[in-house]
Write a structure and sequence with these properties.
It is a single chain. Helix 1 packs across helix 10, helix 2 packs across helix 10 and helix 5 (133-146) crosses helix 10. The protein has two domains: 7-131 and 284-299, Rossmann fold; 133-280, Aspartate/ornithine carbamoyltransferase (Rossmann fold, 3-Layer(aba) Sandwich), CATH 3.40.50.1370. The chain has 307 residues and is of the alpha/beta class. The protein has helices at residues 11-29, 54-65, 86-95, 110-117, 133-146, 165-176, 205-208, 233-240, 244-247, 280-299, and strands at residues 43-48, 69-74, 100-105, 121-127, 154-158, 180-184, 199-202, 214-217, 255-257. The protein contains ten helices and nine strands. 36% of the residues lie in helices and 15% in strands. The structure holds N-carbamoyl-L-aspartate. The site of N-carbamoyl-L-aspartate (NCD) has 11 residues, from helix 2 and helix 6.
Length: 307
């Protein structure tokens, strides 16, 4: 595998390989000096055209733990402000001699486009409404920590599916590993067509919760909603928010997930996010080891992963 642009670049076997490798990096991360020389001499550039907290910091931490060198490209202080094109920007960065570009962009397909222009490995860290493959991998890993396997699990993905790259990548990854996925949303927050999506769809959250093994809340992506898709956020919360009352419908061992950043009080009640069944912080923690695994797969060579 040269790039990671979509969950489909991995398939079920590739996902399993990343998850297996992640176990080793969880072990590395638990050491008193959580660092291995696996990517010494490699240079990784962060090309983030969109805001990020978790994804950027966990990629950065992952790269440091693998001893790679990193360069940060800050759009707001770069020549992008002078009108430099994406292609010229990328070719300029590559001319410095780099090994990987980790890209986040508001438009779907930009990481793929960049991969056509450069020799470096390209990792998609979120492209528009399209995909966010490393989020899906860390979500699979987090579920596997609580339940040995995703096979046969019933996973409800709830909320703003239409604007969510996380939902697209999660559907691909969860179903590749054998889970049954149900999308729960008001019709206005579903994509215009779900043809070919291997999922069930409903707008009735209360009916789904008692049977769910995992309930995955999506952020209400207000910044991507250019038209009025909901009467009000209050109404959304009343029908599709995981309120405290509604959380009582869940089985005792059901898992509550959210990719962050959360709108506490909108898609998830503040106190529900802090219940023992909520693994939201665990998702963030696993993000580091999963991204170590991805960077290692793309840039490392097997022999270098030694104690
Ligand atoms: C998500 C993103 O930016 O795609 N956040 C993340 O990476 N964990 C989800 C979101 O913004 O809602």
């Amino acid at each position: 595998m040269k790039h990671l642009l979509s969950v489909n670049d991995l398939g079920a076997d590739g996902i399993e390989e990343v998850l297996r490798l992640t176990d080793s990096f969880v072990e590395v991360s638990a050491r008193s000096i959580p660092k291995v020389p696996a990517l010494r001499g490699k240079t990784i550039v962060w090309l983030f055209y969109e805001d990020s907290t978790r994804t950027r910091l966990s990629f950065e931490t992952a790269a440091k733990r693998l001893s790679a060198d990193t360069m940060n490209f800050s759009v707001s202080t770069s020549s992008v402000k002078k009108g430099e094109s994406l292609r010229d920007t990328v070719e300029t960065i590559e001319a410095m001699g780099i090994d990987a570009l980790v890209v986040r962009h508001a438009s779907a397909g930009v990481p793929w486009q960049i991969s056509q222009w450069v020799d470096a490995a390209v990792v998609n860290a979120g492209d528009g409404w399209h995909e966010h493959p490393t989020q899906a991998l860390l979500d699979c890993y987090t579920i596997r920590q609580r339940r040995q396997s995703l096979h046969g699990l019933r996973i409800a993905i709830v909320g703003d599916v239409k604007h969510s790259r996380v939902a697209r990548s999660d559907v691909l990854a969860f179903t590749a590993l054998g889970a049954e996925v149900t999308l729960v949303a008001p019709p206005t927050l579903l994509p215009p067509s779900l043809e070919g999506w291997p999922v069930d769809v409903t707008s009735d959250l209360d009916a789904v919760l008692p049977k769910a093994d995992v309930v995955y809340l999506l952020r209400m992506q207000k910044e991507r909603q250019h038209e009025s898709l909901l009467p009000s956020l209050r109404e959304y919360t009343a029908l599709w928010g995981l309120t405290r009352d509604r959380a009582r419908l869940l089985a005792d061992d059901a898992i509550v997930m959210h990719p962050g950043p959360m709108n506490r009080g909108v898609e998830i009640a503040a106190e529900v996010a802090d219940l023992p069944n909520a693994v939201i912080t665990q998702q963030v923690a696993n993000g580091v080891a999963v991204r170590m695994a991805v960077l290692y797969l793309l840039l490392g060579s097997g022999a270098e992963l030694v104690a």
